[in-house]
């Protein structure tokens, strides 16, 4: 797996992207945010991801020190996930990424409208 190839890199960006490089990990972090969430709650919220993949992603996030898995010895067994300080520190970064996407997504809509207007004017000129 590529994860092991990059584990010993000295580049901070490579290390960060190795820890967060799947499409699900940032979403998991954003779903958990500043609360404790049980596995079943995560699975229900993220119903497009299989339970196996969710479990694998949670294990990797735990191994990278981004979240804490708290197991309760009761019947039925209960597990809760919460973010470590390292995980909580990602939230402003993800917020900045959301702002970035919103900015350029709106710009894309403006560009599409401009292109549409240009195409209409070309059609009018031809006629």
Automatic annotation (TrEMBL):
UniProtKB keywords: DNA-binding, Transcription, Transcription regulation
Residue span(s) of domain HTH hxlR-type: 11-109
Top-rank taxon: Bacteria
Name of protein: Helix-turn-helix domain-containing protein
Origin species: Xanthocytophaga flava
